[in-house]
């Protein structure tokens, strides 16, 4: 873990985000891995070890800086590309993160995906910070809605630009009408205020067909591709 921090030895991976209602790729989600051939290569092992040592937020910041550097190089050398990056809501108030985001030149192409590690007690201050960053061009996504701390009732409170339906929900698409009705309700709610919905973990053509019928806007999953190393 000390070597990872000292050498900034993280590997950025990208996975495509596909348009559901039309053809083509919307952009990519940025994922992070530890050093190859090490016990920390997998993201769950990497962040699990960081959390055990009280370094979770430092690891998140290192991952963010890694992703921004990779994204900036891509935009400079290969053209504009939309990218989503994961961030805990509390880190929006970190001075180092704030400074980095304030000066990032490709803010209009970056989607900040708020992730759940701890419950958020004060969404009012988070929304105020989101409003500030939106002025710079950032958009905000809410990750894993329907699982854990990010419940469906938060949608109308936070009004994210994109709601990502938890992979557990998508895995149940083939099992009956109840889950389909729940997803339809989410899609209708999000579309009502102008947001969009992403289905994460699409693995079969049948799941994709159901998502399309429900009006889901974007999708990710092994049906399309697996995360690939994004080194340029």
Automatic annotation (TrEMBL):
Gene Ontology MF terms in the entry: cyclic-guanylate-specific phosphodiesterase activity
Domain of life: Bacteria
Record-annotated EAL domain positions: 1-232
InterPro entries: Cyclic-di-GMP_PDE-like, EAL_dom, EAL_sf
Transmembrane segments: none
Signal peptide feature range: none
Protein name: EAL domain-containing protein
Species in which this protein is naturally found: Pseudoalteromonas rubra
């Amino acid at each position: 873990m000390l070597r990872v921090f000292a050498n900034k030895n993280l590997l950025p991976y990208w996975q495509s985000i596909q348009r559901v209602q039309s053809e083509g790729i919307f952009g990519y989600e940025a994922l992070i891995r530890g050093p190859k051939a090490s016990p920390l290569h997998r993201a769950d092992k990497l962040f699990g070890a960081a959390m055990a040592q009280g370094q979770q937020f430092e690891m998140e910041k290192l991952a963010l800086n890694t992703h921004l550097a990779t994204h900036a190089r891509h935009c400079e050398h290969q053209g504009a590309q939309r990218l989503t990056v994961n961030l805990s809501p509390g880190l929006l108030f970190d001075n180092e993160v704030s400074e980095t985001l304030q000066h990032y030149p490709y803010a209009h192409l970056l989607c900040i995906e708020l992730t759940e590690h701890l419950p958020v007690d004060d969404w009012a201050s988070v929304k105020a910070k989101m409003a500030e960053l939106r002025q710079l061009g950032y958009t905000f996504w809410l990750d894993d809605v329907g699982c854990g701390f990010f419940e469906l009732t938060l949608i109308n409170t936070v009004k994210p630009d994109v709601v990502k339906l938890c992979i557990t929900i998508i895995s149940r698409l083939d099992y009956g009408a109840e889950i389909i009705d729940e997803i339809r309700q989410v899609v209708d709610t999000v579309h009502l205020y102008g947001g969009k919905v992403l289905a994460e973990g699409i693995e079969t053509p049948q799941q994709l067909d159901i998502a399309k019928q429900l009006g889901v806007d974007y999708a990710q999953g092994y049906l399309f591709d697996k995360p690939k190393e994004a080194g340029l």
